[in-house]
Amino acid sequence: MTTKHEQIIQYIISLSVGNKISVRQIAKDLNVSDGTAYRAIKEAENQGLVSTIERVGTIRIERKKKENFEQLTFAEIVNIIDGQVLGGRDGLYKTLSKFVIGAMQLDAMMRYTQADSLLIVGNRFKAHELALTAGAAVLITGGFDTEDHVKKLADEKKLPIISTSYDTFTVAAMINRAIYDQLIKKEIVFVGDIATSFEESYFLRVKDTIADWYELNEKSSHSRFPVVDDKLRVVGMVSSKDIVGKDRTVIIDRVMSKKPQVVQAKTSLASVAHTMVWQGIELIPVVDQGYHLQGVVSRQDVLKAMQQIQRQPQVGETIDDIVASNLEASEDDDSVFESKVIPQMTNQLGTLSNGVFTSLITEASSRLLMKVRKADITIENLTVYFSKPVQIDSKLVIKPKLLDVGRLYAKIDVEVYNERNLVGKGLIMAQLINR
Asked: N or C: less crowded end of the chain, CB within 10 Å?
């Protein structure tokens, strides 16, 4: 039997894209409390089924596919460029496939303006009208307005026409930056991306017995299970160590470990890997904000995903990506690394930024551990000392040295030189993630 929460989610899924959704209306239609309706709507928002748009409300939207995550909605564009919606407000939930800068003759402009695109143009009223007719939204730069019949057409077509005080070049740069940021976010893996879903997860209830554990163990070949109460909230974990030597009639509630470690779907892969390695955990329940079981993630799932990430090409470059691509092993000694200070690695004064310096010594240490122990590292403690500023175009030599290494941890001392002068040092305490 489905819960009220699941019924509301299914109801939202059944609504047409563009429908407005309110807590009060859903509570009335499905005969549930306002609190239940609110929690279900927030879950639908997390699943990408609805979006809350300023001055419009909560709208049923098309669920964004992961491969198109970099696409922005027109509502997001409005926020990015601090725009004003002149018409077509009902279409703010739609996504744009591309944008076109209207700095050309009208007929040429229309050849590039397609449905679901965004035309960025100044006060050219005819271009506004033709773009809307072609199924494209319009962004008017320079703070200009448009004619009333164009606004009416935007309302009829449900295509936004937006005005911003920024110039065309600035607007294009802001939208490009937002898409670039989305690409970087797309590469970050969360627990929800790799976890086993609730429907495929194995769990026990507080009133089950140890005999039920044995039955589930035989069925799944697993030895560690979440324990839930009658509302499917995670209240404990039970493993083979908890039940060994106990009578099979004993209730799970009496042998389980209470207040277990849990994670949420939006917890990053790096964070859960750190927790599992440091605490020696093999399986962690995935829960929502109310601690209701959403699925499970295993240590094997996490390690497999981390190895997969390292084989993927990078689309959006973070500072860490830039540092990694500019760090090379020395020809004389492959445990010593070299890097040139390029403009992206400097601060506003033209010297190596503190954050990049930290990334350099971390990346060099990581490569040393990969070479020596075939293991990745997660930083537990980092102490950095700066001696001298490093100018742009300088060539750095980074020398990581293992002070101590065990089965699960390592201590690394790192010295950084510029023209044989010591410019900084670092001391790293790290946990090892063995491959």
From this structure: N
